[in-house]
Amino acid sequence: MITDIETARDKLADAIWWLKGFAAARPASIDEGAGEHLRLESQLNDVRIFLTHINNASVRRMGDETAVILSFAEFERLVDAVRVPRQSEVKVARQVIEDVLAQYRAEDLAARRGDEIPF
Fold it and tell me: Are 37 and 19 in contact (CB under 8 A)?
């Protein structure tokens, strides 16, 4: 079971190396799909980049409005504002919400325009 981003990235790296070895071992006579492994490697690399963006909370929208990505630090700021509703805590939480919402809306707009968003 994969429980963190690093494990997922390691599994992807293993798959890429296996595919490179598999492609290199193919006889030249059946190599009609030469370069296919490079396309697959590129797609797997896109997944690795996407996982890194999730880990860094630099992507906010996942799927078709199925999830909003927050870093744990951002989540803590929201929790602090609920637990201790002081003006300073609420102000910080409001700024986090506004920042995340703006990024989410920009990604949503890009998705509606047809720009590629993984998954």
Answer: yes
Cα dist from 69 to 14, 38, 63, whole Å: 26, 30, 11
**pTM of this prediction?**
0.57
Q: Three-state secondary structure along the chain? A: CCCCHHHHHHHHHHHHHHHHHHHHHCCHHHHHHCCHHHHHHHHHHHHHHHHHHHHCCCCCEECCCCEECCCHHHHHHHHHHHHCCCHHHHHHHHHHHHHHHHHHHHHHHHHHHCCCCCC
21's tokens: 């070895």
Kindly report, residue by residue over 44-76, the tens digit of the pLDDT.
777 778 777 777 777 777 766 667 888 888 999
Longest Cα separation, the chain = 72
